[in-house]
Amino acid sequence: MCGVAGYVPSSPGAEPRPEVVAGMLSEIRHRGPDEVGYYLDDGLAMGTVRLAIVDLATGAQPMSDATERYWICFNGELYNHIELREELRGLGRPFRTRSDTEVVLQAWIQWGPDCLTRFNGAFAFAVRDAVADELFLARDRYGKRPLFHTSGPGGFLFASEMKAFRAVPGFRFALDPHELKTVFGIWTPLPDRSPFKGVSQLPPGSFLTLRGGRPAVHTYEELSVTAEPFTGTAAQAAELVRDTLRTSVEVRLRSDVEVGVYLSGGLDSSVVTRLATDLSSHEVRTFSVEFEDRALDESGSQHSVADYLGTRHSAITISTADITENFPAAVHHAEFPVFRTALVPMYLLSRHVRDAGIKTILSGEGADEAFLGYSLFRETMLRASWNGLSPEERQRRIAVLHPELGHFGPEHRVHVAGLLSQFSEERLPGLFSHELRYQNGRFAQRLLQDRTEPFADLLALVGNTPGYAGLSPTQKAQWLEFRTLLAGYLLSSQGERMGLAHGVENRCPFLDPAVVRAAASANLRFDDGWEEKAVLKEAFRGLLPADPLSRRKQPYRAPGGVAFQEHRPDYLELVLSERELKKIDGIDPVFAERLVRKVLATPPDGISTKEDQAFVLLLSTALLNQQFVTDGNGPMRIPSDARMNLTTVIDRRGSLLLPGGRR
User: Fold this and answer.
1) How many angstroms separate the CA atoms of 183 and 161, rounded?
2) How many CB atoms are closer than 10 A to CB 658?
3) Among 96, 103, 120, 348, which one is most buried in terms of CB atoms within 10 A?
4) Greatest Cα-to-Cα distance within the chain, rounded to the nearest angstrom
5) So what's the pLDDT on residue 661?
6) Is 70 exceeded by the pLDDT of residue 406?
7) How far apart are CA 263 and CA 267, in angstroms?
8) Half-sphere exposure of 357 (CA within 13 A, CB side)
9) Residues 471-519: tens digit of each pLDDT
10) Distance of CA 298 to the CA centre of its chain
11) DSSP secondary-structure letter at 455?
12) 353-402: per-residue pLDDT in tens?
């Protein structure tokens, strides 16, 4: 795992400046604390901060082929690198290292962009063709690793994190009110967007080519949530899922450093932990978050699973004070507005894992999306069939719809029935599954001056996606989860970015393409969808303690507005006055100030979910504005020792430099 950054100057003939690329890398050094290196050529500079996981001795970057025509900066892990290396050797490709980075480079030289569909991994990388004067950028199919780019007076810039752009002279961040409208509406940016003007993401499953200063983005693999229906028995379907997951965990245990596991106590992390203990030759270490607030705490289930599987378990306990103290740092690493504080415990957990000497963690992200684990999927099926159900059947389904939510309890079922009846017909073309959820987004939009349709860009995206219109309501719900909240929040703000803040890489066995296909093939073949993750539970029945197999999913949550009531940090001043709120481009200061004062003055049980989410969105946006726009747009900030820790500097305009930049 690493971080990459680079730029191509905009002026013809302009030479890249080593201090600029060194400054870019220094901004993201937390992603790769082990090594730093950069490559300079006529018209381009790019570099890597490396977290050494595979081939610790000879995997330094940037890396070239033997001819020094092709150069790569690689962020991520290629889990099938052993198999691909053997195939490439058979085709005559030479290798000088054991690293997966070299496999990616040789695969690109051999197959060009077609190599991407062969990769099973989490990656974002840059390849330079020094002869053709071309740059190639690519990102994995599910968006596990980030890659941002922008074009402006400083040239074409790219990096694993946007904060790297601060080191480029002339670059300035500015919040984009149009993009804030989408983020506040659906809680995440669209796959190719960011909250800042002119800054884009390379979408999952895409690559970018830069030729003659002109970038072009191409899709190499569309997201698929369909597969040929499984034709065997229920027992055979369970076996398929179990075996596919076992292989997925096995390849993700390939590492030259110890691999740990995040254990929440739920089904997904318990499955991963079970497989890791089966496949590891040593004691597996597991890590988790506990909460002082017992309503949020799952420590009983965590310890039950850890004891059952014999792991060496370690946990940290989170208080409301921890939330408020670390929220600004977590937002700075996330680089996006967030609607929950749940990223803060993950930020603190990764620091704990790093301090325990672990660099690589397995986690359960992607299981709910692939195996229909969210109550959203049951709700979609209920609303889609609503008009054909009897009143008695409607009430029976409502009773088991959202057991984790108090406002869906018995005393509220008449109101819930009326609400579901209202949303039993599609209003937003293609977004039926999420329309009820998006009502919270409509409330959050009241924080903005622009109150036009917040879902217009998402409507355009699904309307232009090949094959989307032919999906079932449940499959559309899956597609939306994969493309919005999974990639834009769970894998990014709450996952990858919080882990790499402390140099910890996360690996997601449920997001192996074979696992996603197996789930799509077996889902709803032997059940009606009302038993969450039915096929996954059946696959591991008898292999786990009863608790994760029998209890309903408990969504991972952290204290929201209540934390800021109990502990009023100084940075609350950013949202407590109209004067401060006016500094945030696009925010309606009058409504925003009124909401903040209500949330801070109302007893916790009187704050609605939509108010709490809107408050966190506003506060995180105010912090981003301070960190990136107000304070982050000063003079170029390059630490005086930016080049002192460089391990590799390749300057093709001169000669190979030694560590520290000495010839």
Assistant:
1) 18
2) 11
3) 103
4) 81
5) 38
6) no
7) 10
8) 3
9) 999 999 999 999 999 999 999 999 999 999 999 999 999 999 999 999 9
10) 23
11) T
12) 999 999 999 999 999 999 999 999 999 999 999 999 999 999 999 988 87
Nearest to 501 by CA among 51, 67, 23: 51
Mean pLDDT of the chain: 93
Residue 210's DSSP bridge partners are 135, 215
Return phi, psi of residue 40, to 5°: -120, 140
Task: Fill in the DSSP letter of residue 55.
Answer: -
Q: Where are the alpha helices (DSSP H) in 212-280?
A: 234-252, 267-279
Most confident of 252-256, 397-401, 548-552: 252-256
**Residues forming beta bridges with residue 33, ordered by sequence position:** 50
Q: How confident is the model at residue 633 (pLDDT cuts 50, 70, 90)?
A: low
- Count of residues for the chain? 663
For residue 303, what are the CA distances in angstroms to 266, 290, 298, 355, 536?
11, 11, 9, 21, 22
Task: Encode pLDDT of 452-471 as tens digits.
Answer: 999 999 999 999 999 999 99
Q: What is the pLDDT of residue 405?
A: 63
pLDDT of residue 639 exceeding 60, the answer is: no
Question: In Å, what is the CA distance from 428 to each residue of 13, 239, 433, 438, 456?
Answer: 50, 39, 10, 10, 9
DSSP 8-state secondary structure symbol assigned to residue 587: B
Residues 6+ apart with CB under 8 A from 286: 260, 261, 262, 263, 273, 302, 306, 311, 312, 313, 314
Distance, CA of 248 to CA of 97 (rounded, Å): 24
Closest CA to 344 of 163, 477, 531, 498: 498
**Contact status, residue 462 vs residue 475, Cβ threshold 8 Å:** no
Name the phi and psi angles at 172, rounded to 5. Answer: -135, 135
Give 428-450 as a DSSP string: STT-GGGTTTHHHHHHHGGGBS-
User: Structure tokens of 258?
Assistant: 């110890």
Which is more confidently placed, 648 or 401?
Answer: 401
Structure tokens at 312: 């060496």
- What is the C-alpha to C-alpha distance for residues 507 and 474, in angstroms, rounded to an integer? 26
One-letter amino acid at 98 equals: R
Cis peptide before 513 (omega within 30 of 0): no
| Residue 439 vs residues 189, 323, 561, 609, 610: alpha-carbon distances, Å | 17, 26, 19, 11, 8
Q: In what order do the strands lie in the sheet with 214-219?
A: 63-64, 70-78, 121-129, 134-139, 206-211, 214-219
Write the single-letter amino acid at 368.
D
Q: What is the pLDDT of residue 280?
A: 96
**Distance (Å, whole) CA 382 – CA 389:** 9
Q: State the Cα–Cα distance between residues 188 and 194, nearest whole angstrom.
A: 9
d(CA 34, CA 32): 6
pLDDT in tens, 146-162: 999 999 888 999 999 99
Residue 334 has pLDDT above 60, yes or no: yes
Contact criterion met (CB below 8 Å) for 599 and 607: yes
Q: What are phi and psi of 171, to 5 degrees?
A: -80, 135
Supply the pLDDT for residue 663.
30
Predicted confidence at residue 533, as pLDDT, reads 95
